[in-house]
Automatic annotation (TrEMBL), chain A:
Organism of origin: Oncorhynchus mykiss (Rainbow trout)
Keyword rRNA-binding: no
Ribophorin II third domain location: 375-501
Gene: rpn2
Every Ribophorin II N-terminal domain range: 27-261
Protein name per its UniProtKB record: Dolichyl-diphosphooligosaccharide--protein glycosyltransferase subunit 2
Family statement: Belongs to the SWP1 family.
Subunit and partners: Component of the oligosaccharyltransferase (OST) complex. OST exists in two different complex forms which contain common core subunits RPN1, RPN2, OST48, OST4, DAD1 and TMEM258, either STT3A or STT3B as catalytic subunits, and form-specific accessory subunits. STT3A complex assembly occurs through the formation of 3 subcomplexes. Subcomplex 1 contains RPN1 and TMEM258, subcomplex 2 contains the STT3A-specific subunits STT3A, DC2/OSTC, and KCP2 as well as the core subunit OST4, and subcomplex 3 contains RPN2, DAD1, and OST48.
Pfam families, per database record: Ribophorin_II (PF05817), Ribophorin_II_2nd (PF23861), Ribophorin_II_3rd (PF23860), Ribophorin_II_C (PF25147)
UniProtKB/TrEMBL annotation, chain B:
Pfam families given in the database record: DAD
GO MF entries: transferase activity
Pathway: Protein modification; protein glycosylation
Stated name of the protein: Dolichyl-diphosphooligosaccharide--protein glycosyltransferase subunit DAD1
TM region(s), chain numbering: 29-49, 55-73, 93-112
Function: Subunit of the oligosaccharyl transferase (OST) complex that catalyzes the initial transfer of a defined glycan (Glc(3)Man(9)GlcNAc(2) in eukaryotes) from the lipid carrier dolichol-pyrophosphate to an asparagine residue within an Asn-X-Ser/Thr consensus motif in nascent polypeptide chains, the first step in protein N-glycosylation. N-glycosylation occurs cotranslationally and the complex associates with the Sec61 complex at the channel-forming translocon complex that mediates protein translocation across the endoplasmic reticulum (ER). All subunits are required for a maximal enzyme activity.
Membrane topology classification: Multi-pass membrane protein
């Protein structure tokens, strides 16, 4: 029985290839507690009582004092209002032993509310109240009214409420049209980054839709038209918010959580590691929590590791290993497979229930270990290798007995090996540093020790070559070895030895120049553009007078030549011409001081055309006069010649 | 050498004062005035510097332009050149002179800043 199912699951995994979507949000136990606390607030009115009582019942909890609650409901009930009846009836159903008194009037009011003329919310509340109070109702009529109202109120909340209403009707009613609405509504969801699926109306609308879809699907025993990925995305949307602003929002989340954890078709499963996903020799057991969205453990599930693959080497360490269930936690002893330290990609499958959604999970598990340093040999080697090396072995965590002295003719060498304490395998951690620290001057120089091909770590310090890093300061330096890695449980800081470094004296600077790298830099003063040098006002004034003086000369010359205006005819065109011309010159001045080109052209056009017309007239008259004068003078000359 | 130059100049002056009509002398006086103004502007620029350069250019170009237009007017109203300008009466020449001056002034005032 399990074999073919497992086989098909394996096929499915292979077929799907890369990672399927898994829920990134759910209600942890603390979230559920917070939700319950919010819903346990004291009641202010009937609506808040309804949200609290029914919400808590969905989470499997109950109100603090049921009797008190029942009394509150009965006291606040207004038998004339459909809403009031709805809240009281629904809440009383959630409390054991609480009956709301029903009268014929009540029934009539509720039945009257079921019609095409009421809003969907009204119909929903009336139908729910009727069914909670045990009163008969005509399901087909309700369906008809709902369909008519959906056509008129085409918004998300109305259709969701209609779906909710349908869950209260008898199973024999014709739900065809209403069931299709689930798929239509699902199409209206907004996909945010492929991770979230929600209505733009917000969290409450999305949560109510989820509740309605699953409740109705259960009621009519038809699988909801939601794909696995859509379900996961809806889970992410509904449970991403961990503090709820209103009681109705908290109520909708509680209803959605209840619907998702307990319906007949699709139950999203949440898989997470208990604590950090790390195993080591001290803690060889990998613990997984497999729960539904309300963090209730799924005891009936069976958890299997399909494959465990090392991330770096791609070796598959484990296939088809089952987890064992202990106290609601699934455990696997990974160290029995003797994995090398590092990261492993686990592909985990949850089976045992056909309803499970997101039952294929990828998990990254770290195997950590402890490192030991072996064969630590320190030596001072002469560069020309003429004098034999003196190697001292030092054991961790002790310090070398004497200090080592090295000067510019020598190299200081260090070799060691890093092995895994448990398996004896050689390790190459990320961080292997050699730190030299001068206590007197506070200098610190860090080098990296690198492994060769046989994983033997070597560090060589060429004194002469590295003198710049030490600023040529001779003195005693303590040598520390630093070993660290994400997969090491015991990072090492080991004071191995003291070294006395001797640099050539003439290279040593007098004092340490403190690094002025982080001191404030000198201020840059902004140089504004200097205005150009102007000549003194006296000079420019003098020259202005000089430049204007030729005009006087002109007037004098004209006077001497006998130019006059005795021929000035006072005809209107002449006057107008001269006035216009003067205006044009004045316009030039005004242009210089006030106007821009466009305004000037405008005025110039007006004045200019007037001046032109007047001038034309005037000059024509003058021309006539001149020609007449010329003709008469010619005539006179001719006559005198005769 | 200088003798001939002086004699040429004195002859020229004599001919000028007797032969040229008054009208032309008036225009010549105007031209001389423009010339002086332009020269003085240039002298200022040489002595004191070209700041502000656009103003200097505007003033100088105005003088040059006015001089040229004045010369054109003189040529066109000179009765000796009547054969070359049959279609252009004296009044027409003057009107052209005024129009050209308007445009020149517009441009110069724009540039003077």
């Amino acid at each position: 029985m399990a074999q073919p199912r497992l086989f098909s699951l394996v096929l499915l995994t292979v077929a799907l290839g890369a990672q399927a979507l898994t829920p990134s949000h759910h209600l942890s136990l603390s979230d559920v507690a917070r939700l319950q606390a919010l819903l346990s607030q004291p009641f202010t009115d009937l609506a808040s009582a309804y949200y609290s009582i029914v919400g808590l019942s969905k989470l499997g909890a109950s109100v603090a004092d049921e009797n008190d609650a029942c009394h509150f409901l009965k006291a606040q009930l207004d038998p004339m209002s459909v809403d009031s009846l709805f809240f009281a009836a629904e809440a009383s159903q959630a409390i054991s032993d609480c009956e709301i008194p029903v009268s014929n009037e009540t029934r009539d009011i509720l039945l009257a509310a079921v019609s095409e003329d009421s809003t969907v919310t009204q119909i929903f509340r009336a139908v729910s109240a009727l069914s909670s109070l045990g009163l008969p109702l005509a399901s087909q009529e309700v369906v008809g009214a709902l369909v008519a109202r959906i056509a008129k109120e085409d918004n998300v909340l109305a259709i969701t409420t209609a779906l909710q209403t349908a869950t209260r009707l008898s199973q024999q009613a014709d739900f065809g049209g209403i069931l299709e609405e689930i798929e239509d509504l699902a199409a209206r969801l907004d996909d945010l980054g492929g991770v979230y699926l929600q209505f733009e109306e917000g969290l409450e609308a999305t949560a109510l839709f989820v509740t309605a879809a699953y409740t109705l699907s259960d009621h009519v025993d038809t699988e909801p038209p939601l794909k696995e990925d859509q379900v996961i995305q809806l889970v992410n949307s509904v449970f991403s918010k961990k503090s709820w602003q209103s009681l109705s929002e908290a109520f909708s989340v509680a209803c959605a959580a209840a619907a998702l954890s307990n319906n007949r078709f699709q139950v999203p499963v949440i898989v997470s590691a208990q604590g950090p996903a790390t195993v080591s020799h001290n803690q060889p057991i990998l613990q997984l929590l497999v729960t539904d969205v309300l963090s209730n453990p799924l005891a009936s599930a069976s958890v299997v590791v399909e494959s465990a693959q090392a991330v770096v080497s791609k070796n598959v360490i484990l296939t088809q290993a089952p987890f064992s269930l202990r106290d609601g936690i699934f455990e696997l002893n990974f160290m029995t497979s003797q994995p090398a330290s590092g990261y492993y990609q686990f592909s985990v499958a949850i089976t045992g229930d056909t309803r499970l959604v997101a039952s294929q999970v990828e998990l990254k598990v770290k195997v950590s270990t402890e490192v030991a340093i072996t064969n630590m040999d320190l030596s001072v080697v002469d560069k020309d290798q003429s004098i034999g090396t003196k190697t001292s072995r030092v054991d961790y965590p002790f310090k070398a007995k004497g200090s080592f002295t090295a000067d510019s003719h020598q190299n200081f060498a260090m070799t060691f090996q890093l092995v895994d304490v448990n398996t004896g395998v050689e390790l190459t951690p990320h961080q292997t540093f050699v730190r030299l620290h001068n206590h007197k001057t506070g200098q610190e120089v860090v080098f990296v020790a690198e492994p060769d091909s046989k994983n033997l770590y070597k560090f060589e310090l060429d004194i002469a070559e590295r003198k710049s890093e030490f600023d040529s300061m001779s003195g005693t330096y303590t040598l520390h070895l630093i070993v660290g890695d994400a997969t090491l449980e015991n990072p090492i800081l080991w004071n191995v030895a003291d070294i006395v470094l001797k640099f050539l004296d003439e290279e040593a600077p007098a004092a340490i120049q403190s690094k002025t790298l982080y001191m404030p830099k000198p201020d840059i003063q902004h140089l504004f553009r200097e205005p150009e040098k102007k000549p003194p006002t006296v000079v420019s004034n003098a020259f202005t007078a000089l430049v204007l003086s030729p005009f006087l000369l002109l007037l004098i010359l004209w006077f001497k030549l006998g130019a006059n205006i005795s021929n000035f005819s006072l005809s209107p065109s002449a006057v107008l011409f001269h006035v216009g011309h003067a205006c044009m010159l004045g316009l030039m001045y005004v242009y210089w001081t006030h106007l821009n080109m466009f305004q000037t052209l405008k005025y110039l056009a007006i004045i200019g055309s007037l001046t032109f017309l007047a001038g034309n007239r005037m000059l024509a008259q003058k021309a006539v006069k001149r020609i007449a004068a010329e003709q008469s003078s010619r005539l006179a000359k001719y006559r005198s010649l005769r | 050498m200088s003798n001939s130059v002086i004699s040429v100049i004195s002859r020229f002056l004599e001919e000028y004062t007797t032969k040229t009509s008054n009208k032309l002398k008036v225009v010549d006086a105007y031209l001389f005035y423009i010339l002086l103004t332009g020269a003085l502007q240039f002298l200022y620029c040489l002595l004191v510097g070209t700041f502000p350069f656009n103003s200097f250019l505007a003033g100088f170009i105005l003088c040059v332009g006015a001089f040229i237009l004045g010369v054109c007017l003189r040529i066109q109203i000179n009765p000796d050149n009547k054969g070359d300008f049959l279609s252009i009466s004296q009044e027409r020449a003057f009107a052209d002179f005024l129009l050209a001056h308007t445009v020149l002034h517009l441009v110069v005032i724009n540039f003077i800043g």
